[in-house]
Each structure stands twice: as C-alpha cells, then as structure tokens.
Design goal:
mainly alpha, two-stranded antiparallel sheet, 8 helices, elongated, transcription regulation, DNA-binding transcription factor activity, Tscrpt_reg_MarR-type_CS, HTH_MarR-typ
C-alpha cells in the first residue's frame, strides 16, 4: 500500500474496518450470512420475536434497508416470519435453531479474525472506545444503537457498553 505511513488515523481506521468487514463477510458466506445479517440475527436472538421495523430500529437502519437482509436470512432458514397476532397486517421475525447455530459460528469467526494480537492492546481499545463515545453523541449514531450492537460481545467486552452509558451520563 503506497504511502500508508502518510495516511491520517481516520483513514487508517476506516480502511482497517472495511478490510475486517470484507474478510468477515467472506468467511460468513459459507453460513449464508453477511455482517448485516449477523447484526439482525443477534438482535432477534436477544430480543425475541420482532417486526421488521423493530429489527431495523435496533440495528440502526431504515425498515426498507433491513428488508433484503431479513429475506436472505429467511431463505437460508435462519429466521422464520410468523403472523403477528397483535396486528394481523404484520409479521414477526423469529430466530430458528439453524439461525442460532449460525450466529454462534459467526461470532466465533469474528473472534478469530479479531484475535490477531494487534487488536488486543488496551491503549488501542481505549482510543477506539473514545471515538465511539464521541461520535455516538451526534445525531448520526444514537448511543443506544452502539450499546445494543455491543451486547453480543463476550462478557469482558460488555463493560464497554456500560462505560459508554456512564460516560455519556457524566458528560450530559
């Protein structure tokens, strides 16, 4: 990569994140998943049956955006759509046993990709957490979306979501 040493930190972070997501998506293909699919499966797994609009809100995207992802998850048997008994006009997304198994494998793949050692430095982690805190206080990414997304992480990483919440409360 030409002149990588001259790149700004934000360009390095963005490139690293895109490369991580590209490699993760490549590994997820065998499971019939994408990064977006893992996020949706994780939300449905934690929250239970949800409408398409609710899944979209929890993931932090528009309902129309999540539609294609949910259709793909359904076609692979990761979720099922059930008629909403409270509102017969809508459907609820429910994770299947196959979806739970795929989610577990996807999270293992994520941990393997992140386990290169370089990403385990506390200083880097602290800096990235601060970037997330700073940017989540803007209108572009509500803090709740960040916290919901982080909830699938291992127990020691969940502390970050709690720290984000306490940091936001303290700075408000």
């Amino acid at each position: 990569m030409p002149q990588i040493r001259e790149w700004s930190i934000s360009r390095l972070m963005s490139t690293a994140a895109r490369m991580f997501e590209y490699n993760w998506n490549r590994e997820l293909q065998s499971l019939g998943l994408t990064h977006a699919g893992v996020m949706a499966l994780d939300v449905i797994s934690r929250e239970g049956s949800l409408t398409q609009a609710q899944v979209a809100h929890k993931v932090g995207v528009q309902a129309q955006t999540i539609g294609k992802t949910l259709s793909r998850l359904e076609s692979y048997g990761h979720i099922a759509r059930e008629r909403n008994t409270a509102d017969r006009r809508s459907y609820l997304m429910v994770i299947t046993d196959k979806g739970r198994a795929a989610l577990g494998e996807a999270l293992q793949i994520e941990q393997q990709l992140a386990g290169t050692g370089v990403l385990e430095h506390d200083e880097l982690r602290n800096a990235l957490e601060q970037v997330i805190r700073d940017l989540s206080n803007t209108d572009t990414m509500p803090l709740q979306v960040v916290q919901d997304t982080m909830a699938h992480l291992p127990e020691d990483s969940r502390i970050v979501a709690e720290d984000l919440n306490s940091s936001s409360s303290a700075s408000a």
